[in-house]
């Protein structure tokens, strides 16, 4: 970057180094904070200092009401009566709302219309909202809610996967089953010379965003309302609030500057709290705030989907997979929410990075009487990958192969290879670089030497046992619901040369706003500090998709680039007209524009264009090209490209207690040409640690009555700084370059790193194997808590 600068050469999204112009040594050589710069997160200092303002930090207007949601005490029951007379009469209460008070539709669901704002005839999980109390203080609202008299008649309830299966067959499930097929998997499995089969379960996971669910509604004229919501999907919240009010979408504006974490938990479910606040605000004419405490938040909102997978793989003498059969049982909760797409993505990623000559994947979507499970980082992909990684560990055990060698023999063909391989959904993989990444990580991590060192350690250590594993990740990038792959942006250039940027993406700590600002700065060749990042609002960019599916930078970066280029084209046209030079002689340089032999600062050119009545504002739009998927036939091209990465983890377990620790992790991840290496490295580390929590410590537990007992940090163990491996080595793959024309040839980095933690899970399996002298392959489910590890050790030693 010292001797070159980045400049677009015509192809959308390409970056090429261009030699500096020799005739302008007096000018600075590059902009500050352009594409590729390790620019600090725009809110980083504010996060650390506590100055970052979230929805709950905005000053409350006079007369603000505080809303408390009264919750069901039963998992599944008929409501026989609900007397809220004493609630309405309680001190400080301004209004009480229940289902009958909703002027529009009593629903906040994203798709299917089965998520009532308030329960009506029945309740379907402990924590389901019954009514809302709006009072002068939150304490008054909470106290009033306790005065309600509710009489229930209990109905049969399914809490676990086994209970859901027992309650009804596939026809009675929450959603119809779905199947993907590649070739004749049953015949190939039957004829395979060798076979492994088993079952693995993965638990759910709470999002545990640091900022809980919160919304603040301000009433306007004519029944309009402004809602500040901590949401990843402002347009969906807008639609659901309008639906509840019985008003058109244009009557509702949703705004969010930043979230204190989202991870998918603020994609569909914030609509409930926004809708309740808006209903209160419109009914009373007073601002209303709903802010959940941690316990209520965890009880009321959905989690990552728990999943059971039964697997059977046929393979040859060399450990090459010939056929795979997977049966998924997905615990969805009481309503559909986004479970269909999540369960589908688990199927999409059942192959991970391995070419399966034949495959059969069957998925059931089970109804349970618990909070409706929802999007979570990876969106079902992590659950889908677990089984094939476990199966490959078993194949290695049966054949005597090193687990890494078993994996390498089954990778998809390398990009540019003469061989072709299709996924179980009939998409040809053409961009695979996993073999090259794994080979590099194998060398830089010292895998082979460490494998011998682990073996030597285990031979002389009777109590502590180590494990080592190196696993790959291949993750498809795009919304699998095709129409969601679109984004809009709005760019204003003011007459002093400063820039106002708005787009449909939301900032939840991942650095999206910074990256998109860098794209705009790069286009105009101005310092990133000249680009003002502004809150996401449905009043500026309409009909946006959720900031999800790792697509935030891909979609919003391209939309913002399109808007900036429209303005650039107008400025070029003005310069051509004003100075009489051909368009090819107008060049945007750092902080200035060369017009033939003449140079102007960027702000001077903008000022001239303003006086000449040139429009300096533009919208931009982007829709991902070339993707389509036919769900009926389970075939198509649902992903624009794949993101790849690999991790090598070394762990140690205590065979007397099951306690364990990741000692070292080496990660090599492909982000294409990074928009911002500092932010990308942070995303990789954060995703890996969050995945580690899901697979090792974060255990959700419901009692027989359907009450979530792990509903606070005292009972639910998320990873802390102490759980980070003392030796953590993360690198961006130097050779990365997205072959698809994405924004500056970058790749998504939000979700793929989460699945790098599968290496730790395989390493724990390896350590348990060592505890039993590699005689018996262990059954170990996730999360691999000390209790589960201890039970697995006892089993492989023949004591269980």
Number of strands: 31
End-to-end distance: 61 Å
Give the uncertain stretches in residue-range form.
1-26
Task: Describe the sheet with the most strands.
Answer: 8 strands, mixed
Across the major sheet, the strand order is: 5-7-3-14-11-12-13-22
Rg over CA atoms: 28 Å
Mean pLDDT across every amino acid position: 95
**Share of residues in helices:** 25-40%
Query: Percent of residues in beta strands?
Result: 15-25%
Figure out the total of helices.
19
Features:
single chain, 800 residues, disordered N terminus, 31 strands, alpha+beta, 8-stranded mixed beta sheet
Describe what this molecule looks like in 3D.
The chain has 800 residues and is of the alpha+beta class. Helices cover 28% and strands 25% of the residues. The chain contains 19 helices and 31 strands. The strands form 8 sheets. It has an 8-stranded mixed beta sheet, sandwiched between helices. Strands 9-17-16-15-10 form a 5-stranded mixed beta sheet, with helices on both faces. Helix 10 (381-399) runs parallel beside helix 18 (758-771). The radius of gyration is 28 Å and the shape is globular. 56% of the residues are buried. Mean pLDDT is 95; it is low at 1-26.
């Amino acid at each position: 970057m010292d001797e070159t600068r980045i400049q677009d050469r015509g192809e959308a999204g390409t970056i090429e180094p261009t030699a500096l112009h020799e005739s302008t040594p007096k000018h600075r050589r590059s902009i500050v904070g352009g594409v590729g710069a390790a620019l600090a997160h725009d809110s980083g200092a504010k996060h650390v200092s506590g100055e970052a303002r979230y929805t709950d930090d905005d000053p409350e207007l006079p007369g603000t009401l505080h809303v408390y949601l009264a919750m069901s005490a039963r998992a599944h029951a008929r409501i026989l009566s609900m007397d809220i007379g004493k609630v309405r009469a309680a001190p400080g209460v301004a209004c009480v709302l229940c289902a009958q008070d909703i002027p529009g539709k009593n629903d906040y669901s994203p798709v299917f219309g089965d998520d009532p704002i308030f329960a009506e005839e029945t309740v379907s999980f402990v924590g389901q909202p019954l009514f809302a109390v709006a009072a002068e203080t939150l304490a008054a609202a909470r106290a009033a809610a306790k005065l309600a008299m509710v009489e229930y008649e209990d109905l049969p309830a399914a809490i676990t996967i086994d209970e859901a299966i027992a309650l009804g067959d596939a026809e009675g499930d929450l959603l119809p089953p779905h199947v993907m097929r590649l070739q004749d998997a049953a015949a190939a499995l039957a004829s395979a010379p060798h076979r492994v089969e088993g079952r693995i379960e993965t638990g759910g996971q709470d999002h545990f965003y640091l900022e809980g669910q919160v919304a603040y509604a301000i009433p306007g004229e004519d029944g309009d309302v402004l809602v500040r919501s901590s949401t990843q999907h402002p347009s969906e919240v807008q639609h659901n609030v309008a639906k509840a009010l019985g008003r058109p979408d244009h009557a509702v504006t949703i705004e969010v500057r930043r979230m204190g974490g989202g991870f998918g938990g603020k994609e569909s479910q914030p609509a409930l709290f926004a809708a309740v606040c808006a209903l209160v605000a419109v009914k009373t004419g007073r601002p209303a705030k709903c802010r959940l405490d941690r316990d209520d938040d965890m009880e009321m909102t959905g989690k990552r989907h728990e999943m059971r997978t039964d697997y059977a793989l046929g393979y040859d003498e060399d450990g090459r997979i010939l056929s795979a059969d997977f049966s998924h049982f997905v615990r969805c909760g009481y309503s559909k929410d986004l479970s269909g797409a999540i369960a589908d993505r688990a199927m999409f990623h059942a192959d991970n990075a391995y070419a399966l000559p034949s495959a059969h994947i069957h998925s059931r979507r089970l109804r349970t009487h618990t909070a409706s499970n929802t999007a979570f980082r990876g969106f079902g992909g992590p659950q889908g990958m677990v089984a094939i990684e476990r199966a490959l560990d078993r194949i290695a055990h049966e054949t005597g192969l090193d687990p890494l060698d078993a994996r390498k023999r089954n990778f998809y063909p390398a990009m540019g290879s003469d061989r072709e391989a299709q996924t179980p959904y009939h998409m040809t993989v053409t961009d695979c670089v996993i073999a090259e990444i794994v080979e590099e990580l194998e060398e830089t991590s010292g895998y082979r030497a460490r494998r011998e060192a682990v073996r030597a350690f285990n031979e002389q250590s009777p109590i502590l046992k180590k494990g080592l594993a190196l696993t790959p990740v291949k993750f498809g990038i795009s919304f699998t619901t095709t129409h969601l792959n679109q984004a809009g942006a709005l760019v204003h250039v003011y007459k002093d040369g400063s820039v106002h940027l708005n787009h449909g993406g939301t900032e939840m700590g991942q650095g999206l706003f910074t990256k998109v600002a860098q794209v705009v700065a790069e286009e105009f060749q101005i310092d990133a500090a000249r680009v003002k990042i502004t809150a996401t609002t449905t009043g500026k960019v309409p009909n946006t998709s959720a900031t999800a599916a790792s697509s935030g930078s891909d979609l919003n970066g391209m939309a913002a680039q399109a808007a900036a280029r429209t303005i650039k084209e107008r400025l070029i046209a003005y310069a051509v007209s004003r100075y009489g030079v051909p368009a090819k002689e107008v060049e945007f340089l750092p902080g200035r524009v060369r017009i033939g032999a003449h140079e102007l600062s960027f702000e001077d050119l903008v000022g001239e264009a303003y006086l000449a009545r040139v429009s300096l504002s533009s919208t931009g739009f982007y829709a991902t090209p070339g993707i389509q998927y036919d769900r009926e036939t389970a075939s198509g091209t649902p992903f624009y490209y794949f993101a790849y990465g690999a991790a090598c983890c070394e762990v140690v377990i205590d065979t007397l207690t099951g306690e364990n620790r990741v000692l070292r992790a080496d990660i090599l991840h492909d982000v294409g040409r990074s928009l911002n290496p500092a932010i990308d490295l942070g995303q990789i580390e954060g995703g890996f640690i969050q995945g580690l929590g899901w697979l090792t410590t974060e255990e959700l537990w419901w009692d027989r009555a359907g009450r979530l007992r792990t509903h606070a940090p005292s009972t639910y163990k998320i990873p802390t700084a102490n759980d980070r491996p003392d030796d953590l080595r993360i690198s961006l793959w130097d050779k990365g370059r997205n072959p698809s024309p994405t924004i500056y040839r970058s790749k998504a980095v939000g979700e793929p790193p989460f699945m790098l933690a599968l290496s730790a899970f395989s390493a724990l399996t390896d350590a348990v194997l060592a505890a039993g002298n590699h005689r018996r392959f262990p059954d170990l489910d996730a999360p691999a808590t000390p209790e589960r590890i201890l039970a697995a050790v006892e089993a492989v030693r023949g004591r269980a």
